[in-house]
Amino acid sequence: DIWCVLPAAFPENYELIIRDPSRPKFIISYPCSLLNLIIKDHYTNDQYHELVDKDKHIYEICLENSIFFLNLWSLFSYDITSIKRRRKTYKEKRYCIFNMDGTIAELKGFEVKPNGELQLIKIFQASVFEAFLKGTTLEEC
């Protein structure tokens, strides 16, 4: 995972002006777009070999990059994200998003048990994730 903390005054979204008024406006996330462009320009593997014919051992050389930045919403206090990627499909996505008041806004990808264990797991997850909010730096969290 790659973490990036930006000051609140940092420009978040830009609306691009489109000359054709019939087209909808186009808004981009400035930090994500900029970081993704830098990663693409400097860290893309341009010698990635992908097997296209197993019997003839034929490989195709292509560009490959598995690092992408996601847009973190400023409405939330904290975002914990883990994405494992393989062959342009996301295999597993886990994240926890906290509201500004410290409550969990969204929780995805963590195991939830049925029946009586459900409440116990929810309490445990809430207490574990709440600990991340106590730090002021990534190291403290």
Q: Can you characterise this structure?
A:
Its EC number is 2.7.7.7. Residues 116-141 form the DNA polymerase epsilon ,catalytic subunit A thumb domain. Its main location: nucleus. It is found in: Nucleus. With 141 residues, this protein is of the alpha+beta class. The chain has a domain at 72-136. The protein has two helices and seven strands. The strands form three sheets. The protein has a three-stranded antiparallel beta sheet with strand order 5-6-7, with helices on one face. The protein is extended, with a radius of gyration of 20 Å.
Topology readout:
Blueprint lengths: L12 E4 L9 E4 H14 L1 E9 L4 E7 L11 E11 L2 E11 L4 E5 L8 H16 L9
Antiparallel strand pairs: 1-2, 3-4, 5-6, 6-7
Cofactor: [4Fe-4S] cluster
Enzyme class: transferase
Function: DNA polymerase II participates in chromosomal DNA replication.
Summary tags:
three-stranded antiparallel sheet; 2 helices
